[in-house]
Write a structure and sequence with these properties.
single chain; mainly alpha; 1 helix
């Protein structure tokens, strides 16, 4: 799979953007499922204890 440098950069850039967007969607989905699953306790701030 030979290609010029610009073509390879374009494919790498697209994969990088896709990976970041996929990670963000995964995190958002995780948060939504956590809310739907229902945490019976309120958020607890460990930093300000």
């Amino acid at each position: 799979m030979e290609g010029d440098a610009e073509g390879r950069f374009g494919r790498m850039f697209n994969m990088f953007v896709f990976a970041i967007l996929s990670g963000m969607v995964g995190l958002i989905a995780y948060e939504i499922f956590q809310e739907i699953g229902g945490s019976s306790e309120a958020l607890h701030d460990h930093y300000h204890e």
